[in-house]
Structures are given as C-alpha cells and as structure tokens.
Q: What sequence folds into this?
C-alpha cells in the first residue's frame, strides 16, 4: 500500500504537444482512483508517467513518500515496486499460467519453494488454481486477464496500475471482472489507479474519479460529487451526458440562446427548474453575464404535445428511443439542438412531438460551453 503524490507534474512530447499540464493530485493509501477523460485528454500519459515509462518535463512525483521523479531524481519502472495490467494482457505465450504469474518473483531471486506458495495463493484469489499448468492459448480472454492481474499483484506491489485493463472484454464478463477486481484490491489493501474511457466503469469501480481534458485535471471527486456537483460544463457534459445551452444570466434569470429555454434561477412549487449556479456573485447585480446551462438526461421531463404544431419552439421531435437498464434513452431534436432524455414510464415514439420540461440544471457563469476547472 502507498500514497501517490503528483505536484505540478507536466509532460511535453518531442513534437511539442503538451500531454500533462500542472497536474496536482494525491492518491490516498488504499484508494481506488479512476482516470477518466476523452481520447487525448492525458489519462494514459499520466498513468505511464506514474509507471515510469515517461519522464515528466516538470514537477515532482512521489510514491509511498519516496520521490521517484523530479528535482534530479529518476527511478526507472523496475525500481518503483508497481504492478501493472494492460489492455492486451501482455502475458508470455510460451509459459504456462504458473510460470507467467511467478515470473516477477523469479526475477527478484525469490527461492523456488516460496514462489510456488505465493503463486498458488494468488491463483486461488483470482479463481485460476485449476489452470496453473495451462498455456495462455488454452484460456479465454477473461482468464488471460486474470493471469495478468495475478502476475501484477504476486510481488505485493506498492500500487496497482491498470491501463484500460477490462476494455477488450465483452459484457457480461467485463461486468463480472469489475466486481472481482474491486473485491481483490480491497482484500489486498492495494492503492489502484485505473485508466478507462468507460464512464459507467469509472463511476462504478472507483472511490474517486479524476476527470481530465487537454492534459489538465478538471475535477477530482467521488462518483456522486461528479454527478451532482460538476465544477464546469465539460465535466457535466462528459460525465453526465448533459446537453449544454449557452446563454445569458440577468436579473436572476437564465436566457438560453436556444429559443425554447428560459427559466428563473432557483426552484419553487410552480415547476421552475432546480438550478445550481457555479461562479462567484453570479447573480449579483443586473449586468448580463454569459453562462452555460448543463441539462442532464435525468433533469428533463417529457410531456405529450397538446397540439400538432411542428414550428412551436416549445416542442421537440423524438428522433430515437432506445431501451436501457434505467429506462428509455430518448433523443430529441429541439429546434435544431440535440437533447438526450432518460424516460421512465411513458415512452414517446420516433417522430412524435413532445414538450421538454427542464426540471434540473447546472448554470456555469463565465463559460461558453467547454470550460476548465480545478481539482477538488
């Protein structure tokens, strides 16, 4: 178990591209942290920097209280006492399961009898005891990933790093391995950092999630904090699938550039939206302020259109309604803006006109639709 501390960490690639920019992050001892973000956001660069595959251009990195990068210090990957699991398993085809798992201990010069005991214990943990003598070619994808996981923890690393470790697997195997991975890290008391592009996976697995964009951390928080209290429009859009409506805040009202959306900031018993405003003194004074309203799929109620009026800006046309675990994921064309709504109960049909009623939103003052925040 170990803490991982990153201070003003930066990385610039040889072509001048900024991979990481001023990363400030503390991973707690025994914590499961997910790194989440779109392609190119810097999450894999950050993981590879922690692992030692990339040398940071600036800042400091400490693992277990020991500096491993920065201020003239540089420890290569093999000296950092970390376990790592890759997307493509990266296990040796010529070795059997026991040979693959025990290989890190063999490199350390651990006596053969101790290797056998430790390998047997770890294979039992991951449910592969009966496969110890099999070659990787005789295993399923899920079994090979368990081999990779067992190999990563057999030497009792300070921390476990996972690079899209489950993304190559099919559901429901992937869902089952998520549960097993979470149980294993808790059982071992491991500090874990997990890179994933899957939002459901990050929110379901992690104690906290760090959301990245353009090499910067936008927000760090529990899954609930990210969903209920995003710090900027990017986090709301990426994590919650929120639709962003640029507009103006003036005299306590939000006026979207979209012709069909207007509401008073705040909530009351007359159906006005429940609004959380981000930005100091956002409502002070009568001076108009540019802002963005983020409307999540769960923050909208749909009503049947009382009349057939396709040009009515208050109405939207249903473009699709797909059944999911939590209801129908419905897409609308609302006066040229695509709006996603999660519907439970009444299900509108494709092509039908409906009236979107925004019941909940976050308003971010001073933003124009993207935004960058600070880690919390």
A:
């Amino acid at each position: 178990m170990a803490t991982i501390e990153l201070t003003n960490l930066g990385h610039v690639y040889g072509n001048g591209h900024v991979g990481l920019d001023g990363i400030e992050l503390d991973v707690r001892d025994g914590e499961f942290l997910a790194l989440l973000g779109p392609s190119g956001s810097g999450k894999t660069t950050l993981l590879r920097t922690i692992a030692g595959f990339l040398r940071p251009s600036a800042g400091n990195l400490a693992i277990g209280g020991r500096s491993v990068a920065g201020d003239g210090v540089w420890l290569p990957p093999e000296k950092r006492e970390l376990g790592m699991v890759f997307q493509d398993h990266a296990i040796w085809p010529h070795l059997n399961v026991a040979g693959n798992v025990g290989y890190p201990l063999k490199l350390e010069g651990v006596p053969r009898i101790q290797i056998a005991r430790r390998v047997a214990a770890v294979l039992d943990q991951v449910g592969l005891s009966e496969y110890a003598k099999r070659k990787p070619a005789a295993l399923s994808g899920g079994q090979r990933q368990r081999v990779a996981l067992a190999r990563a923890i057999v030497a009792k690393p300070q921390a476990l790093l996972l690079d899209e470790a489950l993304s190559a697997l099919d559901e429901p195997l992937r869902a089952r391995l998520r549960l097993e991975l979470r149980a294993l890290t808790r059982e071992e008391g491991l500090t874990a950092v997990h890179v994933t592009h899957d939002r459901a996976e990050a929110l379901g697995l992690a104690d906290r999630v760090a959301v990245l964009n353009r090499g910067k951390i936008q927000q760090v928080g529990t899954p609930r904090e990210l969903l209920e209290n995003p710090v900027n429009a990017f986090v709301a859009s990426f994590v919650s699938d929120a639709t962003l409506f640029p507009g103006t805040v003036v005299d306590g009202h939000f006026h979207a550039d979209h012709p069909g959306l207007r509401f008073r900031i705040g909530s009351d018993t007359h159906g006005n939206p429940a609004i959380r405003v981000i930005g100091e003194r956002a409502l002070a004074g009568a001076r108009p302020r540019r802002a963005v309203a983020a409307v999540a799929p769960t923050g909208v109620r749909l009503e049947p259109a009382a009349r057939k009026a396709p040009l009515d800006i208050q109405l939207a046309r249903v473009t699709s309604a797909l059944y999911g675990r939590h209801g129908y994921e419905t897409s609308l064309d609302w006066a040229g803006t695509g709006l996603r709504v999660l519907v439970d109960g009444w299900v509108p049909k494709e092509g039908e006109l409906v009236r979107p009623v925004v019941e909940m939103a976050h308003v971010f003052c001073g933003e124009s639709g993207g935004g960058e925040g600070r880690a919390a």
User: Anything to note?
Assistant: The first helix runs from residue 43 to 51. The first strand starts at residue 4 and ends at 12. Residues 338 and 360 are 17 Å apart (CA to CA).
